[in-house]
Amino acid sequence: MDVMPKWADVILIPLISILLAAILSALVILAIGENPWAALKLMVSGALGSTYGWGYTLYYATNFIFTGLAVSIAFHARMFNIGGEGQAVLGGLGVALACLFIPWPHWTLALLGATLMAALFGAAWAAIPAFLQAKRGSHIVITTIMFNFIAAALLNYLLIGALKVPGSMEPATAKFPEATHLPSFQDMFNWGDTTFFRGAPANITFFVGLAACLALWALIWKTRLGYEIRSFGHSESAAKYAGISPTKIIMVAMLISGALAGMMAINNVQGEAERLVLNAVEGAGFIGIAVALMGRSHPFGVLLAALLFGFLYQGGAELALWTSIPRELIIVIQALVILFTGALDNMVRMPLERLFLSMRRART
Amino acid sequence: MTDVAPAIELKGISKAFGPVQANKDISIRVMPGTIHGIIGENGAGKSTLMSILYGFYKADKGEIFIAGKKTSIPDSQAAIAAGIGMVFQHFKLVENFTVLENVVLGAEDSGLLRPSLARARRELKSLAEEYELNVDPDALIEEVGVGMQQRVEILKALYRKADILILDEPTGVLTPAEADHLFRILENLKREGKTIILITHKLREIMEITDTVSVMRRGEMTATVKTSETSPPELAELMVGRKVLLRVDKAPATIGRKILEVKNLNVTDSKGVHRLKGVSFDVHAGEILGIAGVAGNGQSELLEVLGGYEKATGSIRVNGEEIDLTGAHSDGQSRRARGISHVPEDRQREGLIMDFQAWENTAFGYHHDAAYQRSKLFMDNAAIRKDTEEKMARFDVRPPDPTLAAKSFSGGNQQKIVLAREIEHNPDLLLIGQPTRGVDIGAIEFIHQQIVALRDQGKAILLVSVELEEILSLSDRIAVMFDGKIMGERMPQETDEKELGLLMAGMSGEAA
Questions:
Q1: CA B346 vs CA A269, B246, B332, B412, B509: distances in Å
Q2: Which of A2, A241, A357 sits opposite B307 (nearest CB)?
Q3: B77 shares a domain with B188
Q4: Each residue of B65-109: pLDDT tens digit?
Q5: Do B103 and B188 belong to one domain?
């Protein structure tokens, strides 16, 4: 018998968590002498008040969908993949190589090819820690975080060396050729003289992200592989009894995880920057952890959480732009949301469970 | 006799965990100098009640009187101060300390250890003489047997001047001879005026040693009777709430061809310890081979090897075909394909995934079966659910709801879910470990009937159990394991608990 109805677990707890984070953020804003209500209004209007704002919100959300899904699938196999950052860096490398060195005739093919390369590179980067975990018992948290640093160093090395434009002073690749440019929302939603999403970076990758959510949902809940992954994640001893190979599950789950993290690169590298620069991932790999926690590792939960974090990112940027609230404070607000939705889950859950219990007892 | 105050009196104790009422208005009087048994099925609330008495839980309602005085027991320190000692089912000993150090731990006289140890050594010696509680004070806990570990636990309590001793399922890990020894110790303690509360689910122990017995069912105390005035069937009925069949009805076995042939099986675990040492035996169609033995003598490893998830050397043949023991395809899947089903010893750790719903657990291990697939990629969840519903009806699983998580079912119903899954895949050989551990008496009856019915269909069954009664009543042939070896085989009608007990303790039957 579950203590709480499902809707309370899925909707009420995250809502209360966000509310608590918002209250605390308001206090912080008050403390530095700004008006929290005005700040909230600015965040909402900046992130959701125009198609331009939406264009940014959805762009950030797309990044978080991929990294959030990456962390989620690993969670289902009870693997804590905190290497999404590095895997996304490598995904970027894959995208750059695909776009720069293959003469694509059309963007659709370029998208397909780049996605494949991004997934391949991300998966390859996850494969080494996964192998070490499966065969040698090296803890995945330690190895994946180390691989983040190695990935950053590798990218550095390539961007000031082999991939740099000769003669340029900037650690970046050349601009990708025209045929690889993905249609942005501005290109896609453009009827007559009204242009939506003008200048915003959201692009077709958002729909790839939606498709990824759907595909992962089907994988986890409808396929044999998902069943095996979940079995292993819940009980390794039971999985062994059933004849499910731990090595296989660790490898497969981590490869999918790495591939998803890598696929983020089609959004930020191919879709937005249209070249590979240093620090293109901008911490999205780590945000993915919070997104997965908040989304309860369910693809649709991840989608909602990614939208929320997209809103926070864009709204925060607007705040920094228009008020004297310093940029650092935006990070504090984001951190509060992560703290409450991710780390302090039980703080909200326990009293709520007690409440539901006493309500049920009162009824009987 | 009314002028003697009870050693312990509980009045109206109630305790709830969330929606579960573990103890409901329980009142009980335990007279000094008696052995008082508390019997009940798993989850009847025995352990909760004792935990309240020992200060682990706080009762929601009710009062505790010790020797006639109202006492509050907020923690175990208070319980010890009130003269209560507890011997837990799972011993609470420091493995790499000596017996003496364990006895003193937490009861040191001062900051310096030496005088405490010296005093403890003297006291241990006198206790040993008084109660037959002989231990080697300088042995390391990890190097002595469970029987001695349990005596150390009793000594710990006595060293703290306990007058009331609570023992929680004390014989679960003991051989029959060790259990007899324990009972002698308890008799000695009783003679010296100590009060003993014995928690158990074994009717035989209650009949053998207690003066008074209280029966618990679903959190309530249903009866307290003088042991001399009751009988096992009556107690069973009080425990379950209806009449139960205590013995197993079965016709003589019709032995068929050889299904399982095990030769010279050896297992070495990751620490280099030999768990199985040259085990050989056969199981035939239409036969139940019971493996008796104290837990930890290689039975678990034997099941794991046969079930495909432990590596071994030697030879296993099923239906005359050699089975690969170490290769890449030696796993649970390949065993199931060979017609071996396995009800594992620990259903919560292996047999079920506790967070999965019942229907997901029904496919567990058989999730490659063609009947459960909708296409190459997708599983047919609807078909699995329907199959689960049918299985639940046939095996009387309650409540019959396939979407309930496994952890929401009682132990007996969880075991029925596993049993339904394994039996209904129509195996040639069924491996079954501790079929009724943590299962209520009502379900035990049902499970035993199912095992016998499977045998009568001409299937081979390998039964591993630490319950000697179960082995004796179900098996058509009995093999006894000790220290990774088979000590001997006996026919159930030609042997008894005493002889098997000797074999379980490692004494060769022929020499005895």
A1: 51, 24, 16, 13, 30
A2: A241
A3: yes
A4: 999 899 999 998 899 999 999 998 888 899 999 999 999 888 887
A5: yes
